[in-house]
Amino acid sequence: MKPASLRWRLRWLVIGVLVAVLVPLGLFSMRITLREMDELADGRLAQAAHVLQLMVRGAGIDALAGASTPAGGGPTTLPQSRHTFESEVAFQVIDRAGRVRLATSNFAALPVGDAAASGFADIDWRGYRWRTYRTCDARAGVCIVAGERYDSRRDILRALWLDHALLVLLGLPLIALLVGWAVRHGLRPLDRLARGLASRAPGSREPVAVDAAPAELRPVVRALNTQLERLEDALERERRFSADVAHELRTPLTTSLISVEGARGNADAADADAALGQAQQALNGLARRVEQLLVLARLEAGVADRPREKVDLVPLAGEVIEELAPMIAERRVEVSLDVPDVPVTVIGHAAGLLALIRNLVDNALRHVAGGGHVLIALGEAGASTLIEVTDDGPGIPPERRAEVFARFHREPGGHNEGYGVGLSIVQRVAELHGATIELLDAPWGRGLSVRVSLPRAAG
Predict the structure, then answer these.
(1) 188-198 helix and 150-186 helix, angle to the nearest 10 degrees
(2) Residue 371: is its pLDDT beyond 50?
(3) Taking a C-beta distance cutoff of 8 angstroms, is the pair 376, 321 a contact?
(4) What is d(CA 4, CA 288) in angstroms, rounded to the nearest whole number?
(5) Which residues pair with 337 in a beta bridge?
(6) Please, where are the H alpha helices in 187-303?
(7) pLDDT of 76-91, one tens digit each?
(8) Does the N-terminal or the C-terminal CB of the chain have fewer CB atoms within 10 Å?
(9) Residues 446, 395 contacting (CB under 8 angstroms)
(10) Looking at the DSSP assignment, which residues form a beta bridge with residue 375?
(11) Residue 398: is it exposed, middle or buried by C-beta count within 10 angstroms (0-12/13-18/19+)?
């Protein structure tokens, strides 16, 4: 099913709420009105009977009914016109002997015995339901019976409810139109937000204005701004990574192709082997460069946002030394590991911390001459856990140390210059772990010491 629009939902929810509230209130009001109308009509009927009783008491029943009853002993009958309301009301005047002395034509033949005792009663007479009220006056010696047809009362109520129903029937469509207008008017901020988003230039980092949005939309706009910023960051990372790959892989690929073509076109076996060796060396370098680029891409893509765990750095340092053993042997560099007898733990991501230590050691090995020394030290100081890699290479002047973290920056003087992404990886891992990096002078009089301070694991 196609989801309903927000305007449609709001419009019908509001109308539904109004109907749900107004219909029960209308039914309750109808019951109250019916009861009040019955009480009012009963009061009017009793009042008419008492007025007639006072008239009989003052003038006497003989004066009102005539000196004598009509021939045949019937009551004096008051003439009634054909007007509807006159035929719907009636009364009787009964003397002490139980004779009807005075009556309206529609109650002249009503048997006296059919009238109930004093008070209100309901009777059926000549096809109609009547509401009667009887009162007796002992001093005047008469009883008065006043009656009113129920259909007369219902006609009055029907007219009242018809007037009210017409107002409701005519008012509901108007209410629906007004609710629709109010919903459209109330949702205009959403329309403005949609137009603003549609008109944004690709790649724009300008946030959507929050102050101009209604209070209910401000959390949505803030969340939207956060998501737009994350999206732009992701796109920027993708663009930067694509440029990095194109920049960094061009040279080794070209070198490998040239070496392979040279080996194929060279008839001399020794020269062909040398060319193939160069191609193999270039491909090895390409593989390592791709590995570093992938590590950097994973870190920037937020792989490290996964849940963290307690990591012991000592096994990681040993794994790095084992991994780089061929390079250490080739360079004839002495690598020593200074660790305490207890585990050195932090809360973080093992893969990222392994990449950090590997790139620190790799960077040191590439700037140390044959026979040089690299020291890997792990320890704790106060609330921090320290990773320190020190070499006795040429070092970096203090004025250039801020530049070495730039991607693809290569410090001159290194042997077999690296790819310029090692310290970028170190910096990114440090940022993800809330760590700080310091570049210090080595304590041996020359060289560089890189110290990474990570928050110490609790417990």
Answers:
(1) 20
(2) yes
(3) yes
(4) 54
(5) 376
(6) 188-198, 218-265, 269-300
(7) 776 665 555 556 788 8
(8) N
(9) yes
(10) 336, 390
(11) exposed
Q: Which domains occur in the chain, in start order? A: 6-64+76-170 (3.30.450), 218-297 (1.10.287), 306-455 (3.30.565.10)
Total residue length of the chain: 459
Q: How far apart are CA 380 and CA 385, in angstroms?
A: 4
Question: Which tokens in the block code for residue 90?
Answer: 């009636």
Q: Which residue has the tokens 């998501």?
A: 227
User: What would the DSSP string read from start to end of 74-123?
Assistant: PPEEE---S-HHHHTEEEEEE-TTS-EEEEEGGGTT--GGGS-SSEEEEE
Closest to 355 (Cα-Cα) out of 406, 246, 439, 428: 428
62-77 pLDDT per residue, tens: 777 664 454 445 677 7
Q: Which residue has the tokens 């008051």?
A: 78
Distance CA(128)–CA(290), nearest Å, equals: 103
And the tokens for 42? 């009963």
Task: Quote the DSSP letter at residue 355.
Answer: H
